[in-house]
Specification:
70% of the residues lie in helices and 2% in strands. By secondary structure, it is mainly alpha-helical. It is elongated, with a radius of gyration of 38 Å.
Length: 412
Amino acid sequence: MRNLWRSISSFFSSFVNRSSTINNEPVNKASLIVIIIIDIFILVNVFTGLNDISNWHLSPSETYPCYQEWQSYQTSTSNNKDYEFTKQVIDSNYEKQKFKQRYLSAQIDRLGIVSEQCLVFGDTKDQVDTNSNQQVFKIINDKSNAISKLEDSNRTIRSQYDSTLLEKIAQQPQNNSINQVSAERAKQKLEQNQQEITKINQEISKLKIQVLSKPEVISFIGLLGDSTKFEQVKSGYGQAEFWYPTIQIGLQSLFLVPLIAIALSIYNYSNRKNFGLVSLISWHLLVIFSIPFLLKIFEFLQVGIIFKLIFNIVGTLFGELLFLTRYVYIFIIPLFGFLIIKFFQKITGNQKGKIITRVQKSQCIRCAKKIRSHDINCPYCGFAQYIECENCQTATYKFLPYCKQCGYKHSS
């Protein structure tokens, strides 16, 4: 445990040292503030670029824009759903744009294509959304509004009618009544309004039958009720939803990997040439580009192919105990992060070349602080600088291939 803590402490110490020194000299505060401001600006632009490239490919809902509506019809238990979904076609076209054209506009200058089944679906909706049908639905809406007004009037009259009866029982004179109508007139008005409501409802029913009997509406309802075609759309939507996170991480990698490679190349080159400021800035860039890359990888693992498969397996085996998948995340993600850190530790420059340079400059092999040639351990980080030669048993530098006393080549 102590060795683990020492390794973590050493890693963060090395990270801070690289991020705030130029040729092992601390960066002044003003310069460090400027670098941090630049870091924040670049980081914001990196995340903006990631968001833009993530939207490059059509999402499942854009590839299958008809899925949600079709599924709603298939799962609806309403007796009036044929009329409701037909009315929804008219009401939802507030932009007065063809549905098929609206679906197709999503794929302009983007990757992916809209499902052919949904284009047929959109074309069928366009045939329903005609001027004559719009006019019929406008008449139905007007009549429904008229019914609402009559019902509001009835509620008002009933409230007055109840109080009028009380007044009548108390033998209050009519001219002292707070209501404008007598009980008899109120009852007559209620009956008239109710007759008018019944009449309008009959007219609305006829108009609904008229709309639902039109060939284009029959064709639309028939398509909504076609379970075979819906299952094809449902299957396609499921596949698109399954692969979408993988496509996104691929596009995001396409954006980030070149940036990481460029920053890494500049960092290694500037280290070899001892370009301190360039090395510092390129190190900051390398960190900035790596942070969103790691975040996107972890995000992918949460919703992507691998963890989705694990989630499904755990769900099958343990039923409702889906919280057990969190144990998988807890154990695997830190392991994955550790492997990535080790990978970057391996590739961030030629380690042997760094050690040679540090020995030549009388620097600590690990932290690169200036030390004296006879120091066995670094006074800054405590790292041992020497090992015993396998041949002559004298002290020689760690990690260098040959003994400085006898020239013996070490086995490792």
